[in-house]
Predict the structure of Disease resistance RPP13-like protein isoform 2.
Amino acid sequence: MAAVGEIFLSAIVGVLFEKLISGEMLNFFRREQIHTQVMNWERTLREIRAVLNDAEEKQIRDKDVNLWLEDLQDLAYDLDDLLDEFSTEALRYKLIEKSQSSTNKVRALIPTCCTRFNLGGAIFDFKMRSKIKDITTRLQDMSKKISELGLHKVDVFMTPIQNRERLPTTSATYEPHIYGRDKSKTELINLLRMEESNLGIIPIAGMGGIGKTTIAQVVYNDEVVKKHFDLKVWICVSDNFDIMRITKEIAGYVHVDSSGSKTLDQVQVQLKNALAGKKFLIVLDDVWDVKYNEWNILKSPFSDGAPGCKVIVTTRDKEVALMMGTVQYHALECLPHEECWSIFAQHAFRNINTDTNPNLESIGQEIVKKCGGLPLAARTLGGLLQCKPRESEWKNVLNSKIWELKGSDILPALRLSYHHLPAHLKQCFVYCAILPKDYEFEEKELVLLWMAEGFICQQEGGRKMEDLGGEYFRELLSRSFFQPSRMMEGSKFVMHDLINDLAQFFARQTCFRLEDNKEQYKKLKKARHSSYTQGNLDGIKKFENFHKAEHLRTFLPFSLTELKDYSLSSYVPLELLPKLKCLRVLSFSSYRIREIPTSIGELKRLRYLNLSYTLVERLPESLGDLYNLQTLLLRGCERLKKFPTSIENLSNLRQLDITDADSLEEMPLGIDKLESLQKLSNFIITKGNGFRITELGNLTNLGGKLEITGLQNVVDPRDAQKVNLNGKESLDVLSMVWSKGSEDLRNEGDETYVLNVLRPHSNLKELHISFYHGSRFPTWIGNQHFSNMVCISLRDCKNCSSLPPLGQLRSLKELFLEGISDVKQVGSEFYGQGCSKPFPVLEILSFENMLGWENWYPNVGETEVRAFTCLIKLSIGRCPKLLGTLPNDLPCLRTLRIENCPKLLLDVPNLVLPSITTISIKAVTCPSLPWLLEMRNKLEPSSLKSLYIRDISIPDTLCDPSVADAVELASVESNHMSSLTSLNFQNIQNLRFLPKWFSEGLSGVKSLEINRCNELTTLWQNVGTLEHCFPALLSLQIWGCPQLVSLFEEEAEERQQQQQQQQQQLEGLSFMMSLESLKLRHCEKLEKLPQWLHTFPFLGELQIDSCPSLVSFPKKGFPSTLRKLKISACGALESLPEWMTHTNYNLEVLKVDYCPVLKYIISPRGGLPPSLKHLAITGCAMLESLAAEEGVKINCPSLESFEIRLCKKLKFLPDALHNLKNLRRFEIEWLNSLESIPEGWFSLPTNLREIRISSIENLDALPHSLQNNSNFPSLEVLDVTSLRPSILKKISFDRFSSLKELITDSPMEGMSLPTSLTELKLYRFPYLETLCSREFQKLTSLQVLSISWFPRLASVPSLPPSLQQLEIEFCDEFTSIPEQGLPQSLLELSIWSCPKFESFPEQGLPQSLLELYVFKCPKLKPLCEKDKGKYWPLIRHIPKVTIDHRSIFDT
């Protein structure tokens, strides 16, 4: 039975009381002569509130009480709606009174609907009186049932929120310790570190709340795991296994642009290339249900990763775990009592001292026993009790009847936690039922919504609603109803799935999510809050049931991705919204809507309007009718130009966000009258309106973040003084921006004065100043009174010759200085006179584009100061005149970046950088070899991980082997950078080889990249002496080195005499013996690979791209560990190695592209490795046969895909042995000379899923089995196009019983299609005039139909009702769509290059249609013109309409 009363009835009733007794409302009631009825309501509500606690307890077992509470809840909402109408009218009346006492100018700004208001009860017509009577009757009925149900007044003591000792909450840490999972953690990390050639999938299975996500998070963030993988990805899958979404999110981690309308195949190809060669870890968290085929599609891009790649899957479903995993799933069991107690105690006793009440521990032990070993239950109950110090409160939890409830999936422990929430927190929490599972939200986001819904009330003279809402949020966070997001570093939060279920359980009919069970649509009349997950295209059908929800207060779309390019049917804003008169929250965020209808002004109760990231250019004047509006979000509205003049009527507006609304021309007139405004993100000062800066002075409550732009337009500096920033105590972030140009018209003195008087309050946390042209900074910048300042940026302040004393700011953590060109020295004025320890907590310091900066002095007068003791990151870029040295003692520095500072030197003898992890050097002169040696030795501490050097020139001495060796001998005792793991050289001038002295000590380097080193001829000379060079190297990449001839120099004289001796010697060395991946690209002179490459025991991947001089491979071939061999654009390569079949039994991927003289793939003495899984050959112009000799057969039992394209001379394919049971994909295209396909490829039943044979002009016939479908029980995709008609006629398509997709240009006469088809693409039928209607009607599962190049086709037949996508292209005679119309299931209609097409069906287009594409249809185009064309009424509801590559809604 649902616990209805627990929802938040007492909170709603409390709000009703506050409204009924407020002074303004009482005056309104008296004026409208309904005071008596209202007082009766109040008395009845008091009687009801007195018995609510008793009702909440009894409803658990008494169905009648439960129903009474359901009715009461509905009544409370209806009464609240009615009071909101009264409140809105009272506000309107107040506005009229104000206008009547103001000037005519102000009166003109009041909407006409207000000026027509007739005092004396004009609004209380028959309908309103009827509502009042209905409420009165229902309240009386509810009161009568109190005695009938035996409800009594019950006093329940709860510690008031304001009296509780509260622990300040923080998002930085969530669980200080994880109990009971040490063994699981160790086992999982060991599985992750196992080096396997294939992708390893490790499932973690267990019931909800048992800690699957937590243990995955712990492992994911472990330092050992971080170091083991090149890339880590965390994806929350949830109950919707959306392959496209998941693929795009993974692609985002490797910076793949997956935006736009790319297909899944396009995104996966990009992702596959980006992941190639990387050792990655992907966590797929919270997988519910996934089909085998879907899983195979999703993981297909993972196949090219380096050895040791892993995927962790967390799931509640053991069947899913078994299906996805490559190892036995890791089953998480319930925790033992002791561990569960530790979790409970960790939370419960944060604020309670057990010494004062020792019984709490024994009661707590009994409570924990009821948690069933679930960490989530223990944590949540601990969070509940941390604020309950009384023994009686703990006993109430222990003895609650809720533990005994049956018939619900909600854990009793969670229900108890909710039951004991204060009423005001209950309603805030239950409202979160509208949040999609796994949605990441910000604190402010929820607080603004709670405010709009009336859950947080502004008390006279009390705390701000925003602050009170923040306290509510942190209270729920401390009780574990929310938890910090694992991926957003504390800035965002999530709800555990079970907590989300809890909110939905208590929300019942009041909240509904569009994606949930459709059964809820039957009860939409009682729904108050709705949400849905945005789709790329949201059409009418999605919202067809919304008209039933006439009392709806919330219309809220949520996006689970960063995509801001959604399309919405115009039906929603134009037709649906005007019917939803009770709306308080409305969002169109991220939709490509271009205009807001005037009817928006009819939504009088609206308090929250989010139009962020829309294409809106103007807001309607009716916006000023929204008197209750509190929040207006216009972030990212790049096209917005103007506000309506009526905006001054929004007297309740508190939040106005216009961040990144870059086209906005000016601030709205009357903005200074919005005295309730708490946040104004931007204030724009336009030319000729500099005086308007004074309007900021009236906005006394501004807080949060404020950016003032266009300060150069302030003509009278005294106007800036009236802003009174010093009086705005709540401001946290202040940005002041002048313009970039107009130097000749700028007054330095005025700008200096303006900045001086714009001094903010000392509470400020961040200060940003840009394009200021004053000659000096005011004294308040750097003043010690700004003790809360944590971040400062000063950018392009070109006329300032000195920096302010920022070292005095004791809380400053981040400092960015850029483009302050006149500064020549940084010294005592920067640190602050008399400051012995400047910048005590500074962590990030950046100097950029300081063109005049010459010296950085570490001293203050005669005294050397100890500054930057906490500095973590130092960045210096484009400072061409900077001489001298950097500060020497930087004990915490981890990242050092120096770019384009050619005169800067490091004081190496005094350098102290014990914590350094990353060094990046670009365009810095390298002075000498000893200097480099000294730097190397000084950086010996084990912290350095990454070194990146680019665009520098090295001295000639470095290129003299004898000198290099001499230096090496002289520094044998030197320390080496053994901790370095990543080394990157780019554009190093004069570098001809890597000196032994530099490379031999780098024992920990795993990744070495050398890019664009134009003089590099070889990596090392005298290889035989490199005994222990790069022993840990895993990846070597060389790119764009045009003079590179070989990796290792081989003396010609020694080559014949000592080859065998040297070979034996090398095989015993540890030189690069850990190498796993070798990539060589754009090395034009590379002729050969090392002859001893086969000795590398772990080499798994070799890629050679654009090396036109490479003729052949080493005689002894490659190591047997090689799994992937990719060769591309090697113009001189004639053949692959002969030894391939003998040794490379682990080769899985062989890809050869655009090698124009390559004549064969399989040598005379060999074949393809049996281990081969993927073979792909493209664009090899001279390739005549895969095998050098006839009679060779493919013997690859592991082969999964076989692809050959664009090899115009290929005449023969080798036959295949009858063991291709794993072959899934067979594709041959654009092989003009191919004459036949051997029967052996298809002679036995196969598991082929996809066959593509196209554009092969000389092919005589298809294999017999393919024509008759005798061996293809699993075939799903068949593409046979551009083949001889005689071949196509012989194919019995209808015999492919599993076929889903067919692409063909087969003659239609007599063709019978399989009924299993879901996608049919027909191409190039030059003489066909009609299509067989009967054949199409058989295709009851068809979803996609594409018809292209039918020059005589005039129309299409009646289409199957299942069709979702229809494409008609290049049909010259095509004129119309079937008279009977299009299927009501159709989602996408595309008509391209049909010059005679000019009519849609008379009955219109289906409401299901989401996309309409029209291209080169000149007769149709004018008929679709916006607001004018004949068909505009038929297409305006479609979310996305594109004509000739342009959105019709943009016209």
Remarks:
- The mean pLDDT is 83.
- Residues 1318-1451 form one domain.
